[in-house]
Amino acid sequence: MTAETSQTLDRGLRVLKLLADTDHGLTVTELSNKLGVNRTVVYRLLATLEQHALVRRDLGGRARVGLGVLRLGRQVHPLVREAALPALRSLAEDIGATAHLTLVDGAEALAVAVVEPTWTDYHVAYRAGFRHPLDRGAAGRAILAARQGGMTEPMFTLTHGELEAGASGAAAPLIGVTGIEGSVGVVMLADAVPERVGPRVVDAAREVADALR
Questions:
Q1: pTM of the complete model
Q2: Distance CA 7, CA 10 (A)
């Protein structure tokens, strides 16, 4: 800690990070041990975070991330979209297909940024806000592949006809971006994805990841 930082705020943020990393919540004692502070300090931190709906405690006393973080999270999408647009524009123009950035939203894949090519006679209409299950379509499948662990570099996933009849997709996950789970991809009207598209999508995923770090 330096003179310019707040110890209390730092501890509160550490509480949120610890809770975000667990599915079953943490007790006051567990948080006390992980933070290296006494239980009284933890109680005060939790009470303050609860007032802002950033933390909730279940009947068993375990603390979990609260719904208030969702309101903060919604403001992340415009920032992520802005950072990704240059790479998506380049990808769409290069491939001649609709490019998209997709993020995880609960159990679904959510398209948060979409760029259509300007020079093609036709392309797939794919809009920001479009949702689909994570286990359908290249965008979601790429994210699920990254979840399996051990992936240090993005690898592309190809699909055909899973979200729209006659449409094929290619996507690669964002790797190494803390707090963001997503993928970059293209969707096109074709029976199969051309060979060069997969590697190009991987390059675009790297560009977006670099822009978000």
A1: 0.72
A2: 5
